[in-house]
Write the structure tokens for this entry.
Amino acid sequence: MNFESLKPEVIAILSKANLERDVKLKNLCQFLTNNVDYYNWVGFYFANHENKTLHLGPYVGAETDHTIIPFGKGICGQVAESNANFVVPDVAAQDNYIACSFTVKSEIVVPLFVNGKNIGQIDIDSHVIDPFTEADERFLEFVNQEVAKLF
């Protein structure tokens, strides 16, 4: 996967004038789903630090019941506390995994920082076991750096 070729379009999607932030994020999710064949569910969760919960933002993929996730619960909740990327090659082998669908085989979650504060994360599920590499992590860190400019 050549992530470098996707970066200009990520910037273009997020810099479109006259679109609300959530529309830009939804368009970004759709772009990532369309252009990375093993990105089967792409979405954002945003932190409520007062309640220590994550709240589902724009996403593309199968519907999810996980609209609110407590900090510490599941992969996303762990990233809210650790402030670190979390790659799960095989969700079946993960103890603290919140099952979304039997089709999900792996997951990557990368925190979103604004002014040094973890305000949320990008969450990606795949129907393939162990597809995520360090290149995915670096690319999604880039994506989140661009998304942070919207806040």
Notes: The two ends are 29 Å apart (CA to CA). The beta strands are 41-48, 53-60, 68-70, 86-88, 106-114, 117-126. The chain has a mean pLDDT of 94.
